Amino acid sequence: MDLSFPNPLHFVVLFASLFLLLLLIFKPKKSPPANPKLPPGKTGWPVIGETLEYVMAGRNGNPGKFVDERMKKYSHDVFKTSLLGENMAVFCGAAGNKFLFSNENKLVTTWYPDSVQKVILPHPSHAETDVGLGVTRMRSIVPEFLKPEALKNYVSIMDSTTRQHIEEKWAQNNEVKVVPLAKKYTFALACRLFLSIDDPKHVAKLSNHFARVTDGLISLPLNFPGTSFYRAVKAGNMIREEVLAIIKQRKMELSEKRDATVGIDLLSRMLLYTDENGKFVSEMVIASMILGLLIASFDTTSALITSVVNYLAEFPDIYSKVLEEQMEITKSKGPNELLNWDDIQKMKYSWSVANETMRLAPPAQGFFKVAISDFTFAGFSIPTGWKEYWTPYSTNKNPTYFPNPEKFDPSRFEGNGPAPYTFVPFGGGPRMCPGREYARVEVLVFIHNVVTKFEWEKLIPNEKIVYITSPIPANGLPIRLQPHKK
């Protein structure tokens, strides 16, 4: 046995090796360098990001400024920002629209900000109130109710409701404010078609809280008194309670007279719907879906109607063409005969006016997506979990797509119309807004009734337009009415 001591040099080598190994194991890790392929841009302040800049651009009457400045500074294809506390890639131009719409449920899917989910769906811990599950279950019902084949049956109801509204709210006054009347009209019509409610007091009770909901729907979810989000959550809960009471009453009616009420309105169809396992959708999910539909009818469609009235007042020559088209329809009908589906199809120029209105004053400021896998676009990397945003302001006033873009020119929509993906007011792809045909019929029925009844002039010629969720004239668009001579 060799009892000699090891060579001291061996200890030095051993300790040196152990020391280097420990250094490698416990070496402080540097933060990974920023991905050079991320879209260019800035994310602004912590949590707040650039949300305030985005909101203020709209409040100052120029929501497109936020997008235009960053497209010029960073990229005309895609830039990064931070909105509502989320890292976000803003997709621009027709190519950006096409990419997002054609990759729905492949690379991206629809995303709702926390503020929207907490206002419309206030119980995310409950499995059935999850926005994805609720929307998936209802997705087959809403389009069926709002598709052209179904809407043919509702044109006469829309027309009679519109006539009554015009007679009671417009014809009795020399001067009116368009914004509140447009909201009352679209909301009352939605209540009648979706819920079979036509009692004015009941409709008013439901509508009282909707302004607070829409004001706080897209905002930082700061839920304490004094914030718009707090007011929106509170108002949303009150509306939901009222809708739940309607649902309970309707379920009783359906159980007593099932055959007589099947399929009459959207609420009945939702209550009778069962999935592949024969399971009914919960009352809370249905109430939340109805709440979302009523918000849409209260805000975006009323904003479009308001903007149409605004532009027709500014351009008498265009008003004259719309009047001529609508009077031809009136002359073809008998006394007090209501509009029908064929009449709606004849209103081509009027719909071009509505489209040009949506180009210059989009009722919706954009929509959100979320990346469900890593992907690249225009040479930039978009990581999983990043939010995407598309907005009409990257195309609607782009001179490449629309020459002389500030000019109000309905002829842009005649013939083949704009190039694909340059004008997408209702989105695109598998998640295109199911209410687009409903909105078209509703707006055209309103145009027919108001134009064949009145001429009008604005009382505030250069009234400022404020953009919150939709474009709204700051003073409510007061106008002076002049009935046509019989």
From TrEMBL:
The entry's keywords: Heme, Iron, Membrane, Metal-binding, Monooxygenase, Oxidoreductase, Transmembrane, Transmembrane helix
Protein's recorded name: Cytochrome P450
Chief site of localization: membrane
Keyword Transmembrane annotated: yes
Organism this protein belongs to: Liquidambar formosana
Localization in the cell: Membrane
Cofactor names: heme
Entry GO terms, CC: membrane
Membrane-topology annotation of the record: Single-pass membrane protein
Pfam family name, one: p450
Family of the protein in this entry: Belongs to the cytochrome P450 family.
GO biological process, one term: sterol metabolic process
Binding site for heme: C433
Segments crossing the lipid bilayer: 6-26
GO molecular function: heme binding; iron ion binding; monooxygenase activity; oxidoreductase activity, acting on paired donors, with incorporation or reduction of molecular oxygen
UniProt-listed Gene3D superfamilies: Cytochrome P450 (1.10.630.10)
Keyword Iron: yes
